[in-house]
């Protein structure tokens, strides 16, 4: 029977709680993300993430000694699977985000929403902020 060496992992959340002076919740969130000081970090062992496979090699104790084997996608980290699928869905939406059998009225109603969705998807893929970032939820 063949042997495989499998590397699996999980994420352990590390958090901090800090107060920021800010005019809006969005500004406070931005300050927290940009804050590099993690000297008061805390580990949340009870909220460890899912276990997923990060590498596999043919043979016993073969990590980095043999060529790696492709990890089947269902064993990847869920957030990475979602991101990869998001990219596929985005590519499909970007391709069809043009008039295709819709009435002019329906198309004009649909197009701004589709363009906004495409722009937001581009921002997520490029790890940027949302292009139409709101500082307060609607109706606040």
How would you summarize the topology of this molecule?
Elements: E1 4-9, E2 14-15, H1 25-34, E3 42-43, E4 52-58, H2 78-96, H3 104-125
Antiparallel strand pairs: 1-4, 2-3
Could you characterize what this model shows?
The protein has 140 residues and is an alpha+beta fold. It has two domains: 1-73, no CATH class; 77-140, no CATH class. It is built from three helices and four strands, in the order E-E-H-E-E-H-H. It starts with a strand and ends in a 15-residue tail after the last helix. 0% of the residues are buried.
**Total number of strands:** 4
Largest sheet: 2 strands, antiparallel
What is the count of helical runs? 3
Q: Average pLDDT across residues?
A: 84
> How would you write the strand order of the largest sheet?
1-4
Helix-strand category = alpha+beta
Radius of gyration: 22 Å
Provide the succession of SSEs: EEHEEHH
Uncertain segments: 134-140
- Can you give the helix content as a percent range? 25-40%
Span between termini: 63 Å
Quaternary state reads single chain
Count structural domains.
Answer: 2
What is the overall shape? flat
Strand % is: 5-15%
Characteristic terms for this protein:
36% helix; single chain; disordered C terminus; flat; 4 strands; two-stranded antiparallel sheet; 3 helices; 140 residues; alpha+beta; 2 domains
Brief overview:
36% of the residues lie in helices and 12% in strands. By secondary structure, it is α+β, with helices and mostly antiparallel strands. The longest helix is centred in the last third of the chain and has 22 residues, at 104-125.
